[in-house]
Amino acid sequence: MNHIEVMNFFAENYSCRKCFNNPNISLSGKTFNVAEVSGPQPRWLGKNYFDAHKKICIMLINPGSGDKTPEDEWAPLKNMHQADNQELRTKHWNELMHTNEVGMPKWGAWEKLYFDSLKLKKTKDSVAFMNMMLCASKGNTYNKHSLDLCFSSQSSKLLTYLSPDILIFSGAQTIANAMKKPISLNELRDAGGDESREIKRLLIKNEIKSCLSKDARFYFMGHYAYIKKQDHQDAEIIANSIAQTHS
After folding, report:
1. What is the chain's mean pLDDT, rounded?
2. Domain at 3-14+37-245, CATH homologous superfamily
3. Antiparallel, parallel or unpaired: β 198-199 and 217-221
């Protein structure tokens, strides 16, 4: 796979609204509504990702409701959907990656956690990020049902295209949704101690494992929002493990 499959995936699934105004997906009795930014928002995909010796992907929950990145900065997403040739799609895709690049420093602890503590700053162009739920909803709402529906119908395809060798789940809800039997982030940390943040393959849902090589490895860590020292510790432990095991 390569960048073209990924950009075409986002362009062709722009109109998906399965999670919105859906009576089977609600929070406090209210269905989810599309946020100001509509359509599946790509996270960062480094230009050298598909050539990396070991492809590393960080999976997060959802894109949020768009308050930290103005709607007009995501306009290339709709333009990419409407483009009638690959050259135009690529142009708009590059604009979306620019939106990510200039946006990341504004996203709170994003860079400090994922690039500094996880030690990916020097290899930024060889790293990918994705969301389990691809679209933003008003009020930054999501739940197990919306995550499951998006993954089963859409984001599982994206994970297959990215096909990372190392998949890092970031955030308690993302981690819980990735596992056959949900285990809390604190329980996983206690089990791993100061040495490990790896999740055994047998604990991961089959629908996630089936997207990847049988040799793929899985890790867990905290989330960049409401950052705590434990989140940075997670990242540092993973970085050391990757350096020792996957070099």
Report:
1. 93
2. Uracil-DNA glycosylase-like domain (3.40.470.10)
3. antiparallel
